[in-house]
Amino acid sequence: MSIWGQFNLQEGMSTIMELLNYFHDYMMTFLILILSFVTYLFAFVILSPRLDKYTVDSHVLETIWTIVPMLILLFMAFPSLYLLYLMEDVSNPSLTVKVVGHQWYWEYQYSNSWFNYSFDSYMVYEKSDAPLFHALDVDNRLVLPTNANILFLITSADVLHSWTVPTLGIKADAIPGRLNYLSTITPYSGVYYGQCSEICGSNHSFMPIVLEFVPMENYLDYVSTVIQSE
Q1: Measured between alpha carbons, how far is 20 from 168 in angstroms, rounded to an integer?
Q2: 11-39 residue pLDDT tens
Q3: Phi/psi at 80 (nearest 5 deg)?
Q4: Section 100-129 average pLDDT
Q5: Omega into 104 within 30° of 0, i.e. cis?
Q6: Cα(155)–Cα(181) distance, rounded to whole angstroms?
Q7: Regarding predicted confidence, which is higher, 120 or 112?
Q8: How does it sit in the membrane (predicted)?
Q9: Which of 194, 137, 174 is nearest to 14 (CA)?
Q10: Which residue of 39, 84, 86, 151 is 20 to 30 Å from 59, comparing CA positions?
């Protein structure tokens, strides 16, 4: 990874996260321009030997610095509202997965008319023979299809948790007695890691999240294997 990559956001691997990255860069452009302009004004006021009347008391200047910030806010607001709308849109999901937080593991439930299956996901310790990421790998990964609109229903069975996968732009609190929701679509196959982001007890740091996205053909093979094994 490059030095710049270590300071920047993680590469977006879902449609929403890619848009969030673009929006971040878009907003940073405005912030840098505003900071540069304000710094120039400070230097101009401090270092200028004399400020004439036009600079100090000008109706034209007052009009400009009233209208320009309003236009900047509009250019910021419309992309932001559009992105918020996309993040809240959960219409026509191809697959629904219920996520239940426990102390200290995750429970996943596939909830569909043609496939109902649930399992627990615990952190795997480094005593295993397989190569592992420290405190990030689990015994049972959540397998999902690519290019599918997936709806996650998130809750908790005991205390507050937070289900978070940064590269997919996923973060939602798991609250007892309440059902939060979010959706994601990713065209990229791969394994994506996350962790509980809410302090939930002594073993809070041992609640990793692993999502494995595979092509639809492989996902159907996985479903067939699960159904046959039951």
Answers
A1: 10
A2: 888 888 999 999 999 999 999 999 998 89
A3: -65, -45
A4: 84
A5: yes
A6: 9
A7: 120
A8: Multi-pass membrane protein
A9: 194
A10: 39
Amino acid at 168: L
Is the domain covering 95-229 a CATH 1.10.340.30 domain? no
- Listed in order, the ranges of the chain carrying CATH 1.10.287.90 are 15-88
Among residues of the chain, what percentage have pLDDT more than 90?
53
CATH number of 15-88: 1.10.287.90
What is the four-CA torsion angle of 157, 160, 164, 169, rounded to 10 degrees? 110
Q: Over range 172-201, report the average pLDDT.
A: 92
State in Å, rounded, how far the first CA of the chain is from the last one: 43
Query: Could you tell me the CA-to-CA distances from 192 to 6, 137, 142, 147 in Å, in that order?
Result: 18, 10, 10, 15
Question: Residue-wise over 114-152: b if at least 16 C-beta within 10 A, else e?
Answer: eeeeeeebebbeeeeeeeeeeeebbeebbbbbbebebbb
- Rounded CA-CA distance 26/202 in Å is 40
CATH 2.60.40.420 positions along the chain are 95-229
Neighbouring C-alpha atoms within 13 Å toward the C-beta of 59: 0
